[in-house]
Automatic annotation (TrEMBL), chain A:
Subcellular location per the Swiss-Prot or TrEMBL entry: Nucleus
Species whose genome carries this gene: Zasmidium cellare (Wine cellar mold)
Stated name of the protein: DNA-directed RNA polymerase III subunit RPC6
Gene3D superfamilies: Winged helix-like DNA-binding domain superfamily/Winged helix DNA-binding domain
InterPro entries given in the database record: RNA_pol_Rpc34, RNA_pol_Rpc34-like, WH-like_DNA-bd_sf, WH_DNA-bd_sf
TrEMBL record, chain B:
Keyword Nucleus on entry: yes
Organism: Zasmidium cellare (Wine cellar mold)
The name this protein goes by in its record: DNA-directed RNA polymerase III subunit RPC3
Function of the molecule: DNA-dependent RNA polymerase catalyzes the transcription of DNA into RNA using the four ribonucleoside triphosphates as substrates. Specific core component of RNA polymerase III which synthesizes small RNAs, such as 5S rRNA and tRNAs.
RNA polymerase III Rpc82 C -terminal domain boundaries: 156-452
Keywords: Coiled coil, DNA-directed RNA polymerase, Nucleus, Transcription
Record field: compositional bias (Polar residues): 363-373
Coiled-coil residue windows: 547-584
Chief site of localization: nucleus
C-alpha cells in the first residue's frame, strides 16, 4: 500500500482534473457527476483498486461528494473553500449541508429541511445561520413562495424556477420592465400590422361618403344630377370622415404577413431598446406570454398569416403605443353600457335599494347628481 | 282601472273573469270594457277552455315590448322612411289594426267612416282601391319620405310584411303558449295515436316530431305570403295587368328591376287583413345594428357598413317569431340551417355613396374611384332597390353600357374584399360558404351573440372597475379555472395585486371561487382557491340588474313628474284656458322635459342591453306566457 502523501498527491491531481472537467461543461454548472470508469480515465490509473483510496481521501476531505445516480455510485467535486469548511462541520451540520446540496439549484425550504433531518427547529436554524455566516450556503427568495425561507449552496446560481423569468429582478417582479416591453411590442406590431394613412385628406376636403340626409350639404358634384336628396330608401351607410376615421388602413385579407411571436422576439432582442443582458435571457415563450396578456387586454388580436403556419398578431384598431416616459395609466374613456351609464349601473348601494326603503329611487342622490349634471 | 286589472292578473296569474271581479271589485260592465282594451293592446291573453270559461292571463312578452316601442319606430323610420314609421306608431298604439283602418288613419280614403274605435268597425274593402292619388296636402312637404298616396301606403305595408316587421294577426296569438301546446298535442294524439299511447322512446320521438310539424304548419298558415296579395288584392282590381306582380319578388335580389313605380300601382293588401307589429323581427334588426357596431370598432366604419349590409341581407331570410320552435338539433346541423347571402345581395343593400376603397390598404391605388366619370359604379347601384320613392328615371338609363359593368364589377370586388377582412378577423364575423353570386356568406349568429354578450360584460367591467379587471376576466374566460398564483404568472402580475382585483370581482359576482382544501382541516390558509368566470351567470346577473335599473328609473320618472306637477298641469291646460305661463313655470316645464327625456332615453338604453342579453340569442323563454 502506498503511503498517505502519495495518495494525497494523486488525489489532488484527480481532483484538479475532475474540477476542470466539471467547469468545462458548457452550461457553467459545476456539478457534473463522474462515474467510476470516467474517474479511471481521468486519474490515469488502471484499476479500481488504486482509485478507491483516492476517492476515499477526497470524500473524507469533503472535496468529493458521493451520490447515487441511475443505480450507480457517482462523485462530483466540491469547491476547495467549501470543502475546507465542511471538514470542520459537525455531524448534524454536515447532514443539513448535504440535504441542501441535494436540492441543488432549486434550493430547499427550511421547513422541508427540518422534516428531512428530523431535528429541532432551533437546532436547524442555528446550523443554517452558522453555515450562512461561513458562506457555505445562502438564503434566497423564491418567486413562487416569497414567504418561504429557501436555502441553497453558496456557489450555485439559482435556477429560473426560483428566480422567475426575465420579468423578475432579484426575485421581484420588474413591473416597469414588463410595461415597457409590452408598450414596445404594441408599438412595433402596430407599425407592422396596419398601413398608416399618412396622406391625410388625400381625397380632398369633401367627404366622399354621403348619406341621404346630409346629401345636400356634402354631396359631390357628380351626385347632383341624381335627385336623391331626401331619399329614404334604407341602405346600409356610414359617415366616415377620411381625415379622422382612417388613420389606419387594414391590409387586404390573406395578403399580409402579420408579425408572429418569433418575429416580435427577434425584433426585441435585436433592437437596442432593452439591455443586452435582458435581451439575451428573453425567450420566445416569454414573449408569447406578453402577447397573451396583450390579447386579454384587447391590445392585440390574432390573425391568420398568409403562410397559414403560425398565428400573426395585429394591434386592435385604434390602439396606439404610449410614448416612452409618459405616465402609465392614462385615463381612458369607456362608453360603458346602457346599464352603467345609468346611475343604477354603478350604484354602490344597488342591492339595498327598494321602494320605501332607506335607499330608494325616489330620493336617490345619485339620480339627483345625474339628472342635474 | 285597466292598470288595476293588469296588476291583479300579474300577481295572481291566470284568472277567470269572475275571479278578477272578486279581487278588484270592479263593476261587470267596466271590467268587460277594460279587458277588451287590454286584449286589443295584446297585454292580456285569453283562452276559453272546454267548460266555456274564459281565462285571462298577462302577456308578459308584449307587455315588456311596450318599452321598446320607440326603438321600433325609429328603426322602421330609418329603413323605410317616415311614413312607415307613422304606420308603425299607429299599430303600436292600437295593438293591431285592419289595413283599411290604417289607411283611413292616414287620411287616404275619401269616404271616412265614423266611429270611435277604428279597429272595430267594418270598412268596405273597396274603399282603398278607389282612392288612388287623393293626396292630402298637408303631407306633401317632403313627399319622398311621407306617404301621400294609397299606393305608397300599400307598398310600404307590403314591404314591411315581407321583411317580417309586420305580421298578420289571427286569433291564435291570444292563446297562452301552454294552452296552444296542449291543443296541438291533443290534435296530434287524436290524429296519429288513436290508442293515446305516447310512451316509449320511439313513440316519444315520433310524437315530438309530429307536434313540431303541426306547430310549424299552423304557424306557416299564419304567414304573410304573396298569395294574400293575389287572392284578395289583385283580383279586386281587374284592370291591373298581372305582369306587375313579378316585381314584388325581384326587388331585393336582382339589380335590374326598375322598382321605382311599383308602389303606385302594385297589388293592394286586402283591407280586412289585420296587422300587428312583429317584435321578434325587430330584435333581429337590433342585433344587426349591434353587430355592425362591433365590427366597426374593430375594422372601421366602411367595413362595418358592409357587414351591416350582409346582416341585413341575412335578416331578410329568417322569419323570427316570438315563441318559435327551438329545434334541438346538433350544432353541426344548426350551421347548415343558417341562411346565406351573396356578395351581390350585400352590394345591393349598401349605400351606393359609400367609398368602399376607404379603410383597406392599397385599394384606392389599385382600384381607383370612378370619381371622374359620372357613369360609374354608382349608377349601377341606383337602379336596384325596392324604393318607395318614384325616382330619377333618366338616371337609370345611364346604367347601360360598358362603364356600368366595369364599375359594378369593381364595386363587387371591393365588397368582397371587405367581407374577406371580416372573415379573417378572429371574432369570426362571417364565413364564406360558396361561390354563387360572387361568393356566399354565412354568419354564425349564436357564436356572435355570445361575443356580444362578452363585449357587454367586458364593457360593464371596464366602466365599473378598470382595465386590469377586464383583462383578468377575459383571461379566466379563456383559461377556465385558475388559482391565484397561476393567474399572477400568466398575467405577469404580482400575486397580491391579483388578489385584490380578484376579490373585487368576486364581490361583484363577476367571478367566483371554488375552494379546494389541501388537507382535511379545511382551514382557509390551507385551502386553494380556483377562480372562474361563469358567463351565463353573469349574463343573467346583468339582465336582472338592467331590469332593476329600468324599473328604478321609471319610478324616479314618476317622482320627477310629481315634482313638476304644477307646471305640467298648467302647461296642459294652456291650450284650453288660454293661459300664459310665467317665467318660472316655463323654466320648470323646460326642466321637466329635459329630465323626462334623460330618464326615458336611459330606460331605452337599458332595454337595448336587455335585448342583447336576453333576446338576441332567440333562446330565452322567460317571458313565455
Amino acid at each position: 500500500m502506498a503511503n498517505s502523501d502519495e495518495i494525497a498527491n494523486e488525489a489532488d491531481a484527480l481532483y484538479d482534473q475532475v474540477a476542470k472537467s466539471s467547469l468545462d461543461e458548457a452550461t457553467g454548472v459545476r456539478s457534473k457527476v463522474f462515474f467510476q470508469d470516467e474517474l479511471l480515465k481521468l486519474a490515469d490509473v488502471d484499476s479500481a483498486k488504486t482509485l478507491m483510496p483516492l476517492i476515499q481521501y477526497l470524500t473524507n476531505n469533503g472535496l468529493f461528494r458521493t451520490l447515487r445516480q441511475a443505480g450507480k455510485l457517482g462523485w462530483s467535486a466540491r469547491p476547495r473553500e467549501a470543502a475546507r469548511q465542511i471538514v470542520t462541520l459537525d455531524r448534524e451540520d454536515k447532514q443539513i449541508y448535504e440535504i441542501i446540496e441535494e436540492a441543488h439549484t432549486n434550493g430547499i425550504w427550511s421547513r422541508e429541511l427540518r422534516r428531512k433531518t428530523n431535528m429541532a427547529t432551533n437546532a436547524v436554524t442555528k446550523a443554517l445561520n452558522q453555515m450562512e455566516k461561513r458562506n457555505l450556503i445562502k438564503g434566497i427568495k423564491s418567486v413562487k413562495n416569497p414567504a418561504q425561507r429557501t436555502y441553497m449552496l453558496y456557489h450555485l446560481v439559482p435556477s429560473e424556477d426560483v428566480t422567475g423569468n426575465s420579468f423578475f429582478d432579484s426575485g421581484d417582479l420588474d413591473e416597469s420592465f414588463r410595461d415597457e416591453l409590452m408598450n414596445l411590442i404594441v408599438f412595433w406590431v402596430r407599425t407592422q400590422s396596419w398601413s398608416e394613412n399618412k396622406k391625410k385628406g388625400k381625397k380632398g376636403p369633401v367627404s366622399p361618403v354621403l348619406t341621404a340626409d346630409d346629401a345636400s350639404s356634402r354631396k359631390r358634384k357628380r351626385t347632383e344630377d341624381i335627385e336623391d336628396a331626401g331619399r329614404h330608401v334604407y341602405r346600409r351607410s356610414a359617415k366616415p370622415d377620411p381625415e379622422t376615421d382612417f388613420p389606419q388602413l387594414v391590409y387586404r385579407a390573406g395578403t399580409h404577413n402579420y408579425p408572429t411571436a418569433e418575429d416580435i422576439h427577434k425584433f426585441l432582442t435585436e433592437s437596442n431598446a432593452i439591455k443586452p443582458t435582458k435581451a439575451a435571457s428573453l425567450t420566445v415563450a416569454e414573449i408569447q406570454g406578453c402577447i397573451d396578456v396583450l390579447c386579454w387586454g384587447e391590445k392585440l388580436e390574432r390573425v391568420p398569416n398568409k403562410d397559414g403556419i403560425a398565428w400573426g398578431y395585429r394591434t386592435v384598431r385604434g390602439v396606439s403605443f404610449r410614448p416612452p416616459g409618459t405616465a402609465m395609466d392614462e385615463y381612458e374613456d369607456h362608453p360603458g353600457t346602457g346599464l352603467t351609464q345609468a346611475p343604477c349601473g354603478r350604484c354602490p348601494v344597488f342591492d339595498l335599494c327598494h321602494e320605501d326603503g332607506p335607499v330608494n329611487p325616489q330620493e336617490c342622490v345619485y339620480f339627483d347628481q345625474w339628472l342635474r349634471a | 282601472m285597466a292598470q288595476q286589472i293588469f296588476t291583479t292578473l300579474a300577481e295572481n296569474g291566470r284568472l277567470a273573469r269572475f275571479q278578477i271581479q272578486q279581487l278588484t271589485h270592479i263593476p261587470t260592465r267596466s271590467l268587460r270594457h277594460a279587458l277588451a282594451v287590454l286584449v286589443q293592446l295584446h297585454l292580456v291573453l285569453h283562452y276559453t277552455g272546454e267548460e266555456d270559461i274564459t281565462f285571462y292571463s298577462v302577456d308578459w312578452r308584449n307587455s315588456y315590448y311596450l318599452t321598446r316601442s320607440n326603438r321600433v319606430i325609429s328603426l322602421v323610420d330609418n329603413r323605410y322612411g317616415e311614413g312607415a314609421g307613422k304606420i308603425m306608431a299607429n299599430l303600436l298604439q292600437l295593438g293591431h289594426a285592419r289595413v283599411g283602418d290604417l289607411a283611413q288613419a292616414f287620411d287616404l280614403t275619401t269616404k271616412p267612416n265614423s266611429g270611435d274605435d277604428p279597429c272595430r268597425e267594418h270598412v268596405n274593402a273597396e274603399n282603398g282601391a278607389r282612392v288612388n292619388g287623393t293626396d292630402t296636402n298637408h303631407m306633401r312637404k317632403t313627399p319622398n319620405t311621407k306617404i301621400s298616396t294609397i299606393g305608397q301606403f300599400h307598398g310600404t305595408l307590403r314591404k314591411m310584411l315581407k321583411a317580417g316587421f309586420l305580421a298578420k294577426v289571427n286569433k291564435r296569438i291570444y292563446t297562452p303558449a301552454a294552452d296552444l301546446d296542449a291543443e296541438i298535442e291533443e290534435a296530434v294524439i287524436s290524429d296519429r295515436f288513436p290508442d293515446r299511447k305516447i310512451t316509449g322512446p320511439k313513440k316519444q320521438a315520433e310524437f315530438k316530431s309530429a307536434v313540431n310539424i303541426l306547430k310549424r304548419k299552423w304557424r306557416d298558415n299564419d304567414e304573410f305570403t304573396d298569395r294574400d296579395l293575389e287572392s284578395k288584392g289583385t283580383i279586386r282590381r281587374p284592370g291591373e295587368p298581372p305582369g306587375k306582380r313579378a316585381k314584388v319578388n325581384g326587388g331585393l335580389t336582382n339589380g335590374a328591376g326598375h322598382d321605382g313605380h311599383i308602389e303606385e300601382n302594385g297589388p293592394k293588401l286586402p283591407n280586412d287583413m289585420v296587422l300587428k307589429v312583429n317584435y321578434a323581427q325587430c330584435v333581429l334588426a337590433f342585433r344587426t345594428d349591434r353587430l355592425e357596431q362591433l365590427a366597426e370598432s374593430y375594422l372601421g366604419p366602411v367595413t362595418g357598413a358592409v357587414y351591416g349590409a350582409l346582416l341585413q341581407a341575412l335578416e331578410g331570410k329568417v322569419r323570427a317569431r316570438d315563441g318559435d320552435i327551438q329545434d334541438d338539433e346538433g350544432s353541426d346541423d344548426e350551421e347548415d340551417d343558417l341562411p346565406v347571402a351573396s356578395t351581390l345581395e350585400v352590394a345591393d343593400l349598401l349605400d351606393p355613396n359609400i367609398d368602399l376603397t376607404l379603410g383597406i390598404q392599397g385599394m384606392s391605388e389599385t382600384q381607383p374611384l370612378t370619381n371622374g366619370d359620372t357613369k360609374g359604379k354608382k349608377k349601377a347601384k341606383v337602379t336596384e332597390d325596392e324604393s318607395i320613392k318614384i325616382e330619377d328615371d333618366e338616371d337609370e338609363h345611364h346604367t347601360n353600357g360598358y362603364t356600368s359593368y366595369e364599375g359594378r364589377n369593381k364595386r363587387l370586388n371591393l365588397v368582397e374584399e371587405h367581407l374577406k377582412i371580416l372573415e379573417e378577423h378572429s371574432k369570426g364575423f362571417c364565413k364564406r360558404v360558396g361561390g354563387a353570386g360572387r361568393g356566399e356568406w354565412r354568419v354564425h349568429f349564436s357564436a356572435l351573440t355570445d361575443t356580444l354578450v362578452q363585449t357587454t360584460i367586458d364593457e360593464t367591467i371596464l366602466a365599473r372597475f378598470g382595465k386590469i379587471h377586464a383583462l383578468l376576466v377575459r383571461m379566466l374566460r379563456e383559461k377556465g379555472r385558475l388559482a391565484e398564483k397561476e393567474i399572477g404568472a400568466l398575467t405577469l402580475m404580482r400575486a397580491k395585486d391579483v388578489r385584490s382585483v380578484l376579490t373585487e370581482l368576486q364581490y361583484a359576482g363577476i367571478i367566483e371561487a371554488q375552494e379546494v382544501p389541501k388537507d382535511t382541516s379545511r382551514q382557509p390558509t390551507r385551502t386553494l382557491y380556483l377562480y372562474f368566470h361563469d358567463q351565463k351567470r353573469v349574463q343573467s346577473l346583468l339582465l336582472q340588474q338592467s331590469y332593476q335599473g329600468m324599473s328604478r328609473t321609471l319610478q324616479r320618472l314618476k317622482q320627477e313628474r310629481e315634482n313638476y306637477k304644477n307646471a305640467i298641469e298648467k302647461a296642459e291646460m294652456m291650450d284650453v284656458m288660454n293661459e300664459e305661463l310665467n317665467q318660472n313655470e316655463r323654466e320648470a316645464v323646460m326642466q321637466w322635459r329635459e329630465v323626462e327625456e334623460k330618464l326615458v332615453i336611459q330606460v331605452q338604453r337599458m332595454d337595448d342591453q336587455v335585448a342583447l342579453l336576453r333576446d338576441f340569442s332567440g333562446k330565452d323563454n322567460s317571458l313565455v306566457s
